[in-house]
Specification:
74% of the residues lie in helices and 0% in strands. With 234 residues, it is mainly alpha-helical. It folds into two domains: 115 residues; 110 residues, Phycocyanins (Globin-like), CATH 1.10.490.20. The radius of gyration is 19 Å and the shape is globular.
Length: 234
């Protein structure tokens, strides 16, 4: 009987392709890296994800994929991405595995779940911010409803969680410039998110507001990385 690792390896191309099908629907990738470059590196990453999953299954060690996830996060964060981007890609791989018959409770699916969990910060301000990000995003969205149509609320919540992921990564790395560089680039990209009159400085300001006294380090980081209204028009 063929081992699970060999079965996954035999479907590696299909899994890699399926895991990135929805990726390029997000205009972020083409705008940030150029579509051709984004697709080339995205395809390479997807295949590496499966390759490390196969190795992890072959050795019966989830830690192989977990270590790979943490290492890759460090690399991608330095290149303008955030933990949530990588988590989304692993989530898409889990969905591709489920479509192939390896759903929750199977080794491949559970190993990918372990890799996603490995991306969670374990200590410090980044851990607390990451834990509370969904609630913070909901609170900020509720205060911004006058600027958006009701149908856009889930999309805005997801967007705010993405921004908080950038903050958490900068906190964990101890590198404020990571967030500053991101915010300056994202200010020009923001109109392509399609939230109408909602401006990026308003988004950052609302995030600072909901962070409150529980997240002083994150508030400071956002304050130092903020953009002005003039910068959004340049």
């Amino acid at each position: 009987m063929e081992s699970v690792s060999k079965s996954v390896e035999a479907r590696a191309d299909r899994l890699a392709t399926a895991s990135q099908e929805a990726l390029y629907q997000d205009p972020f990738w083409a705008a940030r890296y150029g579509l051709e470059r984004a697709q080339r590196f995205g395809d390479e990453d997807a295949r590496f994800h499966v390759r490390y999953l196969v190795q992890s299954l072959d050795e019966h060690l989830p830690s192989v994929l977990e270590g790979y996830a943490r290492w890759l996060r460090t690399l991608l964060v330095s290149r303008g991405m955030c933990s949530r981007h990588l988590d989304r890609h692993f989530a898409a791989l889990a969905a591709a595995l489920e479509a192939e018959g390896w759903g929750p409770g199977s080794e491949p699916h559970d190993y990918v779940g372990a890799a996603r969990q490995a991306l969670r910060y374990q200590e410090g301000p980044a851990r607390l911010l990451e834990e509370e990000a969904p609630e913070l995003a909901r609170a900020a969205t509720a205060r911004l409803t006058l600027y958006i149509i009701p149908e856009d609320q889930p999309r805005l919540e997801e967007e705010l969680q993405l921004q908080l992921s950038y903050v958490a990564d900068a906190l964990a790395a101890g590198k404020p410039d990571l967030l500053g560089d991101h915010v300056r680039w994202y200010a020009g990209f923001w109109p392509r998110r399609g939230f109408g009159l909602l401006a990026f400085p308003s988004v950052l300001g609302m995030l600072k507001s909901v962070l409150g006294s529980r997240h002083p380090e994150a508030r400071t980081l956002l304050s130092e990385a903020g953009v002005s209204w003039e910068e959004t028009r340049s």
